[in-house]
Amino acid sequence: MFPPLCFVDVSSGIVPSESKENLKENISNEEFALISNVSSPELNFKFKLVEFFNKRFN
């Protein structure tokens, strides 16, 4: 329905090297480093309601 909005090969999920170069030319170095960093920090999900009840009943 819509055109793809990124440079990823849909069938394999791998970004071709020429697409990476094209992307790097069109955005700043800082932005490219943010989206291309594969070793991103681990995410921890928290739920405020669960934290509230844990504090309340402990």
For the largest beta-sheet, the strand count, sense and barrel status come to: none
Structural class: mainly alpha
Number of helices: 3
Number of strands: 0
- Could you report the average pLDDT, rounded to the nearest whole number? 78
Helix content estimate: 40-55%
Could you state the order of secondary-structure elements as H and E?
HHH
Portion in beta strands = under 5%
Radius of gyration: 19 Å
- CA(first)-CA(last) distance: 51 Å
The low-pLDDT segments are none
Q: Could you say which overall geometry the principal axes of the C-alpha atoms support?
A: elongated
How would you describe this structure in keywords?
58 residues; mainly alpha; 3 helices; 48% helix
Description:
The structure is a single chain. With 58 residues, the protein is mainly alpha-helical. The chain is built from three helices and no strands.
